[in-house]
Q: What sequence folds into this?
């Protein structure tokens, strides 16, 4: 059984139940039956003025129904509550409404949300953080802040931080980019690379965040310093003060890793997102010189680049779903077209295969790709 969808309704990961043919030559298919839709294929169909397509239902694809996806570490209700308070705090900081007293009250409400985040992650002790869970909502600065908070709390938990310290790192991560409200919005949203003068202005956001929070009496010195130094690097090449190694607050060292990972894997006005495994490799490459080695090691222990249930494309062109991720970077996957299993970590015939692409959010259209 199949369903007809408007071309504007289809999303990455959907499977065609009927072939789509070139109008000028009905013998030449644009896409064949059982083809898995990617964003580039969807865009191509739109260019060809295709108005609707037939999509295979779950009943027709029982292989996908067998895959049990892990429950998100953050409930939708908690996520919405966190985003709501973050939106208010950033709006107040940008001068859209409210004053210092309202800001302090809103931050106190956010404290409760952070405590719930810590409690939620503590209950899931041993669970891995996956990129799909972090990317299941639209991407604005405050959504980025929530993702950074989740990863930061998980890293700190892996490092053995106390519950009070976990709450503090969550709050610091939530606030780490508050200074961007003091940077011209046209620079934040610029679709091309920043010139040196523009970059110098954007770099002031860490100091501006420190200044705003300390001037308004929001939080404490540990929070202010964590915000100030989250762009420092272990070799002293960061900003604003060029701190090195242990001189960088531990909260800042943790946030730095979480911040870079989420930034790399997020849609940005000037580039497409980096694939999760590539982002992990970039962070591993920066261990010791850019990032704290122990923080990177803890980060790698809690991240799951290819969670069970996600869709990936192999180097042989096969679109597959992950069915087992016991070996996180080389999971067991199943081809959608014929059900063939590929054990990327143990099958000698698969040693040459690599994962070319992961569909970050096949259940919701990624409009910015």
A:
């Amino acid at each position: 059984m199949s369903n007809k969808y408007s071309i504007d309704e289809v999303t990455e990961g959907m499977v065609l139940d009927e072939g789509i043919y070139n109008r000028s030559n009905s013998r030449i298919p644009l896409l064949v039956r059982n083809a898995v839709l990617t964003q580039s294929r969807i865009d191509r169909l739109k260019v060809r003025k295709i108005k609707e397509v037939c999509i295979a239902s779950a009943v027709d694809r029982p292989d996908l129904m067998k895959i049990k996806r892990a429950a998100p570490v953050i409930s939708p209700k908690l996520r919405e509550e966190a985003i709501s308070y973050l939106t208010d705090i950033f709006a107040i900081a940008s001068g859209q409404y409210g004053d210092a007293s309202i800001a302090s009250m809103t931050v106190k409400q956010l404290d409760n949300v952070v405590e719930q985040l810590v409690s939620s992650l503590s209950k899931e002790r041993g669970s891995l953080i996956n990129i799909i869970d972090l990317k299941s909502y639209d991407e604005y600065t405050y959504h980025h802040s929530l993702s950074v908070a989740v990863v930061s709390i998980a890293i700190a938990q892996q490092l053995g931080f106390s519950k009070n310290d976990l709450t503090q790192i969550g709050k610091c991560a939530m606030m780490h980019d508050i200074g961007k409200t003091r940077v011209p919005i046209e620079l934040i949203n610029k679709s091309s690379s920043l010139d040196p003068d523009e970059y110098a202005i954007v770099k002031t956001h860490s100091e501006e965040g420190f200044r705003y929070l300390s001037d308004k009496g929001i939080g404490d010195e540990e929070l202010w310093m964590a915000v100030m130094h989250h762009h420092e690097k272990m070799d002293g090449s960061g900003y604003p003060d060029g701190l090195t190694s242990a001189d960088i607050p531990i909260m800042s060292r943790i946030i730095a890793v979480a911040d870079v990972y989420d930034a790399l894997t997020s849609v940005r006005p000037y580039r497409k997102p980096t694939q999760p495994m590539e982002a992990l490799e970039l962070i591993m490459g920066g261990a010791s010189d850019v990032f704290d080695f122990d923080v990177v090691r803890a980060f790698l222990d809690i991240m799951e680049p290819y969670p069970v249930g996600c869709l990936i494309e192999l180097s042989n062109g096969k679109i597959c779903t992950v069915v087992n991720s016991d070996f996180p970077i080389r999971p067991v996957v199943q081809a959608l077209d014929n059900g063939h299993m590929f054990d990327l970590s143990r099958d000698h015939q698969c040693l040459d295969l690599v994962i070319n692409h992961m569909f970050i959010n096949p259940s919701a259209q990624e409009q910015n790709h």
Remarks:
- The longest strand covers residues 25-31.
- The two ends are 30 Å apart (CA to CA).
